[in-house]
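Hey, I was hoping to borrow your eyes for a little while. I've dropped the whole record in just underneath, so have a look:

——
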Amino acid sequence: MQYFLTVFDKDGSLLLNETFEYEKDTLAIDHGKQRLEEENFQDVTHRMTRNGKLLLFHR
């Protein structure tokens, strides 16, 4: 399954926009959280989706 991880700046511009594939949501969520930590974006507005399903969100 394909997942999309997007991080937004306060002005709405994209700071990170990545896609990746995993077989399970749990593995994708772990990867998404790891990427957010690597880029120090845990507390920045972000979302991770799969087929329109919201899996991670922070505002």
In short: Strands lie at 2-8, 14-21, 46-50, 53-58. The first strand starts at residue 2 and ends at 8.
